[in-house]
Amino acid sequence: LVDDSIDTGNTAIPGLLIQPFAENAILHGLLPAKQPGLLKISISKSDNHILIAVEDNGVGRAAAAASRADHQALQKSHGTDITWKRVALFNKEHGVEIEPVVVDLIDEDGIASGTRVEIRLFEEAVL
Questions:
Q1: Angstrom distance (rounded) from CA 60 to CA 87
Q2: Is the pLDDT of residue 7 over 60?
Q3: End-to-end alpha-carbon separation of the chain, Å?
Q4: Do 86 and 17 meet the contact criterion of CB atoms below 8 Å apart?
Q5: Per-residue pLDDT tens over the stretch 37-84
Q6: In this structure, are residues 18 and 52 in contact, taking their beta carbons and an 8 Å threshold?
Q7: What is the C-alpha R_g of the chain?
Q8: Which are the contacts of 94, defined by CB distance < 8 A and separation ≥ 6?
């Protein structure tokens, strides 16, 4: 979902910024879930920034980490590590501070109900 106020013809998001978070949500959040999964990617504009949100209704980070520890004790996923390094390089090259924030979603009963990654791009960071 892209906000109608965003000029998609003149707005570019740094390459490979969203994809690793979406892939991570599917692999580690949605696939292990017992209920039907939902992945929502939204791009909205507010004041002087663009907010990208990648949200899933999966098992949450704690359950995903436990599952990974059980099934892949010797294998480490590098997708998000590489993404964090790409963000750091982008920040350094462009003199900006993009900092993805990971939010653990909790339902009204205090049970994990998914994960949301929020990435704020200030207008000077948007290419």
A1: 23
A2: yes
A3: 20
A4: yes
A5: 999 999 999 888 899 999 999 998 877 776 655 555 445 567 677 888
A6: yes
A7: 16
A8: 124, 125
Say which residues have a Cβ less than 8 Å from residue 57's Cβ, sequence separation at least 6. 29, 30, 33, 35, 37, 38, 105, 113, 114
The token pair that represents 10 in the structure block: 């003149």
Place of tokens 């979406």: 22
φ, ψ for residue 113 (rounded to 5)? Answer: -130, 20
Are 80 and 47 within 8 A, CB to CB? no
CA distance 53 to 18: 9
Contacts (Cβ under 8 Å, ≥6 apart) of 38: 30, 56, 57
> What is the per-residue pLDDT for 73?
47
- Give this prediction's pTM: 0.82
> Looking at this protein, which amino acid is placed at residue 37?
G
To the nearest 10°, report the CA torsion of 116, 83, 126, 88: 120
| Residue 126 to residue 43: CA distance in whole angstroms | 13
Measured CA to CA, the distance from residue 29 to residue 65 in angstroms comes to 10
| The pair of three-digit structure tokens given for residue 112, joined into one six-digit string | 């994990």
